[in-house]
TrEMBL record:
<dbReference type="InterPro" id="IPR011032">
    <property type="entry name" value="GroES-like_sf"/>
</dbReference>
<feature type="domain" description="Alcohol dehydrogenase-like N-terminal">
    <location>
        <begin position="24"/>
        <end position="131"/>
    </location>
</feature>
<dbReference type="GO" id="GO:0016491">
    <property type="term" value="F:oxidoreductase activity"/>
</dbReference>
<dbReference type="Pfam" id="PF00107">
    <property type="entry name" value="ADH_zinc_N"/>
</dbReference>
<dbReference type="InterPro" id="IPR013149">
    <property type="entry name" value="ADH-like_C"/>
</dbReference>
<comment type="similarity">
    <text>Belongs to the zinc-containing alcohol dehydrogenase family.</text>
</comment>
<feature type="domain" description="Alcohol dehydrogenase-like C-terminal">
    <location>
        <begin position="169"/>
        <end position="299"/>
    </location>
</feature>
<dbReference type="Pfam" id="PF08240">
    <property type="entry name" value="ADH_N"/>
</dbReference>
<keyword id="KW-0862">Zinc</keyword>
<keyword id="KW-0479">Metal-binding</keyword>
<dbReference type="GO" id="GO:0008270">
    <property type="term" value="F:zinc ion binding"/>
</dbReference>
<dbReference type="InterPro" id="IPR050129">
    <property type="entry name" value="Zn_alcohol_dh"/>
</dbReference>
<dbReference type="InterPro" id="IPR013154">
    <property type="entry name" value="ADH-like_N"/>
</dbReference>
<dbReference type="InterPro" id="IPR036291">
    <property type="entry name" value="NAD(P)-bd_dom_sf"/>
</dbReference>
<dbReference type="InterPro" id="IPR002328">
    <property type="entry name" value="ADH_Zn_CS"/>
</dbReference>
<keyword id="KW-0560">Oxidoreductase</keyword>
<protein>
    <submittedName>
        <fullName>Chaperonin 10-like protein</fullName>
    </submittedName>
</protein>
Amino acid sequence: MDAVRYAAPNQLDIVNVPIPEIQEDQVLIKVTCCGICGTDRHLAEGEFIGKFPLIPGHEIVGIISQIGSSVKGLIIGDRCVADNTILCDSCYYCRRGQYLLCSNFDSLGVTKAGGFAGFVAVHSKKVFKINNLTDEEATLVEPAACAIHGMDRLRPSVGVEAIIFGAGPTGIILAQLLKINGASKVVIVANKGVKTKIARDLEAGDEYIELDRENPHPQWAKLKDEYQGKFDIVIEATGSQAIATDSINFVRRGGSLLIYGVYSNADRVQWSPAKIFQDEITVIGSFAQTHCFPRAVAYLDSGKIKVKGMVTDIFFIKDFEKALEKLRSKTACKIALRP
């Protein structure tokens, strides 16, 4: 089968590799679609937690083509998505129920062979059937699972006012989750373009503030003048060091800041500890997800979280470099890769 493979950071090849052999508790998924996200850009550059050589792709959608001897509840031909996380269940954190902090955390497409290939082997307990989503729409299940974990970390009270910086796929999904789960107001701040248009089309937020990508200073000045210190929940979902630094100034006294974007390893922020102390601000990190896929499938497959139109571009494996170029151009909302 053809696959995208990094021999090392920035060393990309399209290679032909054997189809994986499955164990008795695994299924073989014939990949029909696999989403590309900002994490893949960081992986390509040797950041995040990648291990090389690597076949990336962690937003896996496909059809079950082979089943291990001990697998129950799944049949050949089932349309499905795969939870990419792999946990050891035996380290200090797993034994405390803090699975995302697993000392031996692995992930399909990040540390182990993933879905930018024709087939991928997945443990059956990590496979979930889908019914009403297209293959392209189903690439949003994994981002939705991560967004649900972010909500679990936030535990927002009914009636909160929230602002989200960034209108990427998870920003749009987080906005919808906040509205469904009791936020009285959700403001989305993002650069003018396809992402904010899709956010509006899906009615993800209650208010939208679009920034001029070339000269955002006038909009930022107005934003700071009108909204600093006005939100119970602030979500930084851009991965921008500058916006992460500024974001704390929008948190209301007693509020929470969720750091959700994926940043370069060298990025640093500077916050006033006195402000955090005096205003009793809670700063929360949210990394990936574990055990959130059932809820993500339920939200998306039921249509309660809307993802129609979020996949704006589709490429084939052989054109993966073009897909990365499109990702870097910031002119796509969600990109998907087909074998």
